[in-house]
Specification:
By secondary structure, the chain is of the alpha/beta class. It contains 15 helices and eight strands. It has a single domain, classed as Rossmann fold (3-Layer(aba) Sandwich), CATH 3.40.50. Its main location: endoplasmic reticulum.
Amino acid sequence: MEGQAVAARMREWWVQVGLLAVPLLAAYLHIPPPQLSPALHSWKSSGKFFTYKGLRIFYQDSVGVVGSPEIVVLLHGFPTSSYDWYKIWEGLTLRFHRVIALDFLGFGFSDKPRPHHYSIFEQASIVEALLRHLGLQNRRINLLSHDYGDIVAQELLYRFKQNRSGRLTIKSLCLSNGGIFPETHRPLLLQKLLKDGGVLSPILTRLMNFFVFSRGLTPVFGPYTRPSESELWDMWAGIRNNDGNLVIDSLLQYINQRKKFRRRWVGALASVTIPIHFIYGPLDPVNPYPEFLELYRKTLPRSTVSILDDHISHYPQLEDPMGFLNAYMGFINSF
């Protein structure tokens, strides 16, 4: 009898825990996104939107040097946004007539439809559509990319090489710390879980919070160049905008796409004839040294490379903006 009484009390306790957990979980899942910091709010306010197939895409477009014909288009990485470029933005306006960046679909302030089949092909088409929207479709474009943006740049380069009408005319390409080779790319544990989680992925994306995000992202920065808590909150605010945390698993399918279309995208780089450069933070755990750099130099012997300081990691434009900018300007002024 005593054992039955204990079992009954245990059942009652678990029922009470369950009843308490349900509203707490419901409240957790409906936590509103964080407010934008003044700096991030200013970035959004100074930008604009255009519509691509009914979807709103955020972009920045600054006029820089008067009289220069040069245009640079910036392509950001995963899982962040065009705000990744803010530390070098002013420096770029001192060299280029137009400095343009967008938030890819599913990122930052752009729309984040779900369900949706996110693809590198669509993101490349969005870049082309933006330049048509700005009346720049016939201008020669310098592309500067990072991480996820490197793969979009590879697809744009492939289209350019096919001489298809309506495609970008690329003048130069500068890549940075992107997993352009599937065989040397080392995705984070959380990325692996979300990419291959199946039925678990929607649960994991809903349970993701600032603590999980910051603990997952911080290790890809160098030990002396890690973002401050306020900078991490800016990144998280961009992800949470329009419930972007709920599409991360869909966006991560780019890792599978990169494997499937390796020949197309690596082939576009390997046979390139335009000036091409790579800016590399060598402490990057996602694209590790020296394996990545050895394969890059073997595959692209014509490309020049800038290796930043030993402690710079996966986000070189944020970790060492002056070093990154100097490396890019050295490349741009070399041809």
